[in-house]
């Protein structure tokens, strides 16, 4: 599912769009969605309240747009994976774990898993997924969730992920 803001936002020049996206990231990385405020975003982005609502329907719309954008930078397309090569998925997860704390969106993801995921939890239809794709999807999501909620135990979560992926690979 592609989440887009209103056309007026998409038509903005790159600099203004980036300024607004940075303000959204700043807000949602520090406040759960139910405590976020348009007032702080518009002040940070130097735009009017009216402009904000020309770009987004509401805070939830802005949050979902930003989250979708940031996930796009790190998300692995499981549909296009070579399941004969489960080591690729393991390497991608390892790379993500090693680099995650350097991402500007790290705090956004922490807030998402800690507070916002349960507020929004969209239904992602999995009936069209192959069984292997579904297993990788669930394992990857739960591993990432655990990593962001309990970073002190990241090696435990990664090793469990690695073991599970290797087991699935053997059964294929």
Automatic annotation (TrEMBL):
GO terms for molecular function: DNA binding. The keyword DNA-binding applies. Coiled coil: none annotated. InterPro entries: Homeodomain-like_sf, HTH_TetR. Signal peptide: none annotated. Residues 37-56 bind DNA. The keyword ATP-binding does not apply. Residues 14-74 form the HTH tetR-type domain. Keywords: DNA-binding. This is HTH tetR-type domain-containing protein.
């Amino acid at each position: 599912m592609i989440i887009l803001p209103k056309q007026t936002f998409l038509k903005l020049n790159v600099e203004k769009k980036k300024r607004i996206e940075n303000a959204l990231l700043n807000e949602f990385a520090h406040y759960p969605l139910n405590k976020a405020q348009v007032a702080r975003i518009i002040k940070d982005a130097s735009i009017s309240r009216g402009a904000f609502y020309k770009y987004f329907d509401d805070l939830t719309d802005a949050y979902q747009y930003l989250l979708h954008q940031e996930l796009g930078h790190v998300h692995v397309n499981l549909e296009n994976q070579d399941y004969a090569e489960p080591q690729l998925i393991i390497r991608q997860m390892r790379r993500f774990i090693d680099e995650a704390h350097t991402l500007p969106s790290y705090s956004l993801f922490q807030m998402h898993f800690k507070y916002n995921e349960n507020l929004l939890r969209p239904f992602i239809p999995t009936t069209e997924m192959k069984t292997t794709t579904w297993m990788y999807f669930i394992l990857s999501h739960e591993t990432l969730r655990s990593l962001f909620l309990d970073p002190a135990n990241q090696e435990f979560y990664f090793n469990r992920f690695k073991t599970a992926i290797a087991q699935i690979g053997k059964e294929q």
